[in-house]
């Protein structure tokens, strides 16, 4: 299963909700078909109990588990695991296509720090990304937790980490016209909540980062601070508002966008491993 | 006495009582508060750094809302040889305990506690550096 951009194309341009997952106990890569059957039965049983998801049309949920072999960083990383839920309404003919309704995938990109510290029989896939109804996420999550004795937690992204992301991604080289670099701030302690959106031309942002970064391939906290301070100073000059006193809640670049509630959208396949590596790191630090 | 930054307005110098302790407040959720404190430190007379300055860091309860790196704050404490107190002022119980701590420190700095002076804080800081 070599690098197939078609296979990973579905990962782009979707809003993924992030979770950190503790290592899975007793997971066997060879049993994916069995797991799919068990999960399918679990979902059907929960629906019978009345914990149904969709009201209205009777839906059969089909479960498919597969490995995404090229989504990994080092040799130590486990290949990513994809769970896909599709529906087919009971009324429709046999040969009609299944409609995908939910995706969830586990991955580890350079998660060696974690995988090196776990005992045998544990599989490390610390980052989980889901897209689709929250109720399906809860069902799949509880099955995995019961079956592999693991724990899912929403992964929030702090303003500190968001500023790392915007500095890193704004500095990436892109061949074609890129979209603006946008930062969204939320102003605290006001009667009416106020959001400030600060959009910067991508070339200006990259030019600024290039003057700040000393060693290509390496980024330090100081460099991120200088980059952000320049943006804050520029904004203050024009609007007399100290953005550094507000809370950075969302950043958007041509590479990817990220929200502090732990929601990311990856827009560029070339930088997919880089983004996943950063998110894996965040997931691991939440677990430890 | 509360001030948003230093230096204090000079017009009221003659009315001001003696200052025994300066508490610099840093909110981990606001990068601006750290910058403000760093700028204000320049206006403090060197004699205050013999135990009459401390840093009060709030916002530790919400790691996910952090805009400042913890290292930066600890380094500040080391550079100015002054204690760094961590708290979460948004919680009422912790607000009360923090206030009590500050009053205890203030009493020592004001010379109200016999046998203990502000210089004790300095030697405490030195000891933990050596560890």
From TrEMBL, chain A:
Sorted UniProt keywords: Centromere, Chromosome, Nucleus
Chief subcellular location: nucleus
Compartment(s) of residence: Chromosome, Centromere; Nucleus
KW Metal-binding (keyword) present: no
Pfam family, one: CENP-L
InterPro entries with a match to the protein in the record: CENP-L (IPR025204)
Record-level GO cellular component terms: chromosome, centromeric region; nucleus
Residues spanning the signal sequence: none
Stored PANTHER family: CENTROMERE PROTEIN L (PTHR31740)
Family note: Belongs to the CENP-L/IML3 family.
The protein's name: Centromere protein L
Species annotation: Calcarius ornatus
UniProtKB/TrEMBL annotation, chain B:
Domain of life: Eukaryota
Listed name of the protein: Centromere protein M
Pfam families registered for this protein in UniProt: CENP-M
Primary location group: nucleus
Transmembrane spans: none
Nucleus recorded as keyword: yes
GO CC annotation: chromosome, centromeric region; nucleus
Annotated localization: Chromosome, Centromere; Nucleus
Taxonomic source organism: Calcarius ornatus
Annotated keywords: Centromere, Chromosome, Nucleus
InterPro entries per UniProt: Centromere_Cenp-M (IPR020987), P-loop_NTPase (IPR027417)
